[in-house]
Design goal:
With 119 residues, the chain is of the alpha+beta class. The protein is built from 6 helices and 5 strands; from the N terminus they run ββαααβααββα.
Length: 119
């Protein structure tokens, strides 16, 4: 029986580690990167979207508190501005947790795809 390798290796220019072993990474489709809806996002919104994809662990619903954003070097004001942009562009939905003193629950949305198809 073979053993599971710990950490997947990726190409050197996409890893900060000398051994290129990553415990977690994301996949980004070429069609997303080439879509007009994605092109219309600011660089900050694209970065937040990719960080959210990393933190979601492949799940559609996830939390992304300020402490997590700070881990990626995203400032509080930038985070909120980019979240609003992503929501308005149809990339994410937000369910506020403020009334129950819980973090916001985010989910990836497919609305941007229908806007892309309408072009």
């Amino acid at each position: 029986m073979s053993r599971k390798k710990s950490g997947a290796g990726i190409v050197g220019w996409l890893s900060a580690r000398a051994d290129c072993k990553e415990g977690r990474f994301i996949q980004v489709g070429n069609s997303l990167l080439l879509s007009q809806q994605y092109h219309d996002l600011t660089a900050g919104a694209k970065n937040v979207y990719q960080c959210m994809a990393m933190e979601s662990g492949g799940k559609r619903e996830f939390v992304f508190p300020l402490s997590t954003a700070k881990k990626y070097g995203i400032a509080k004001n930038s985070l909120w501005r980019n979240i609003v942009e992503l929501q308005n562009a149809g990339f994410i939905n937000i369910q506020s947790g403020a009334s129950i003193r819980q973090p916001n629950l985010y989910s990836f949305s497919f609305e941007w795809k229908s806007a892309e198809a309408a072009r």
